[in-house]
Design brief:
With 361 residues, the chain is of the alpha/beta class. The protein has helices at 2-7, 24-35, 48-62, 68-71, 77-89, 105-112, 131-137, 160-172, 212-215, 230-243, 249-261, 263-267, 269-286, 314-325, 347-360, and strands at residues 11-12, 72-75, 95-100, 116-121, 142-148, 176-180, 206-211, 224-227, 290-291, 299-303, 327-328, 330-331, 338-342. The longest helix has 18 residues, at 269-286. Bound molecules: 4'-deoxy-4'-aminopyridoxal-5'-phosphate (PMP) and glutamine (GLN). It comes from Haematococcus lacustris (Green alga).
């Protein structure tokens, strides 16, 4: 969709990256680290400063104590964390439970690792966890469940009771949880992020994944991290060794600085996103697009059923919109009648997109 957006010079609310950048102090540290000769392979696990900062962040934000020396790993973004975790933990034939719709890398990576995917469809309109279907998806071959909260693409923030249900099923069936929490700070309108790993009985069976790209609005930096019990970390570290070995140390140092010294930046992201959502939502509603509830991440999902032409699905609709209206969105798929707006963009861009959509629809 990004390529098509460029070709048609459309207003791109497709790919989820913010228009605003992160703290200047972090950019300064990244470049001075290069001048200070931090330009050779750092440790396989990550520089100690960042691993210590990640451990402190885990304790401070979610009350999850973390031994930086055995329970942290720095990765090339959360994308590599997901890949290394799946390659490290999944054996061929293992079943993995994933909620649909979901972020695009999960299925590909899990299949590559030999997994059998057990999808569980979140229930509309609020993308709630269907308790009976979830319970039915667990069985003797279930190895892991992927839990992404706040959720891409819906903006849903998993509730405590949903997480408690997942925690009890994981313990009942001896299942590992991979917790993709890259949007942990991007919550608003009263929602609170709770990590599955913070719940009783989950510390030894859950791995959390975070991203400096999302936490500091530096998505190009591709610095992420995993925290979790040492026993589960070992095979993930092995996979990381042979995927990428390590991560640029200048960027790691800058992220360590950010976690320790720029909490105000990530604590302010929720309010800024709430304001952008408040700008977009009524305009979309006025056009007849049904906006679904959401309290986190960069994304708003809208129902476009009444604008779909005969035989057209969400993907075809998004292509048509890019070409004919000059606005790029992302199909949610499944289901086939929802589209995702990434509204982490300049207000002027949001206004321009609404104007074009209003004229076209
Ligand atoms: N998980 C989710 C849910 C995401 O939306 C993203 C963003 N691409 C990632 C993981 C990957 O994050 P990173 O850019 O740190 O690799
Ligand atoms: N997480 C972002 C999104 O879902 C971007 C990720 C990507 O482009 N691979 O839009």
């Amino acid at each position: 969709m990004s390529k098509l957006a460029v070709e048609h010079n459309s207003v791109n609310l497709g790919q989820g990256f913010p228009d605003e950048e992160g703290p200047a102090s972090m950019k300064q540290i990244a470049s001075s680290a290069m001048d200070d000769f931090h330009n050779q392979y750092p440790s396989l696990l990550g520089v100690p400063e960042l691993r210590q900062a990640v451990a402190r962040h885990s304790a401070a934000q979610q009350g999850i104590p973390c031994d930086w020396a055995t329970e942290t790993l720095v990765t090339v973004g959360a994308t590599e964390a997901i890949a290394a975790a799946m390659l490290g933990l999944i054996n061929p034939g293992d079943e993995c439970i994933m909620f649909d719709p979901m972020y695009d890398s999960y299925v590909s990576m899990a299949r590559r690792a030999g997994a059998v995917i057990r999808p569980v469809r979140l229930a509309l309109p609020d993308f709630s966890v269907p308790a009976d279907e979830l319970a039915a998806a667990f069985g003797p071959r279930t190895k892991l469940i992927l839990v992404n909260t706040p959720h891409n693409p819906s903006g849903k923030v998993f509730t405590r009771s949903e997480l408690e249900l997942i925690a009890s099923l994981c313990q009942q069936h001896d299942v590992i949880a991979l917790c993709d929490e890259v949007y942990e700070h991007l919550v608003f309108n009263g929602a609170q992020h709770l990590s599955l790993r913070a719940l009783p009985g989950m510390r030894d069976r859950a791995m959390r994944m975070g991203s400096a790209g999302k936490t500091f609005s530096f998505t190009a930096w591709k610095v992420g991290w995993v925290t979790g019990p040492a026993a589960l970390m070992a095979p993930i570290v092995k996979a990381h060794q042979f995927l990428v070995f390590t991560v640029p140390s200048s960027l790691q140092r800058a992220v360590a600085h950010g976690l320790d010294n720029e909490p105000g930046f990530y604590q302010g992201l929720g309010a800024s996103l709430a304001a952008k959502r408040a700008l977009l939502e009524p305009k979309l509603e006025a056009m007849g697009l049904g906006v679904l509830p959401g309290h986190g991440a960069y994304f708003l999902v809208a129902d476009v059923s009444k604008f779909l032409r005969e035989g057209e699905d969400d993907a075809a609709f998004c292509k048509r919109l890019t070409v004919e209206a000059g606005v790029t969105l992302i199909p949610v798929n499944p289901p086939r009648h929802l589209v995702r707006f990434a509204y982490c963009k300049d207000d002027a861009k949001l206004e321009a997109a609404c104007q074009r959509l209003g004229t076209y629809l």
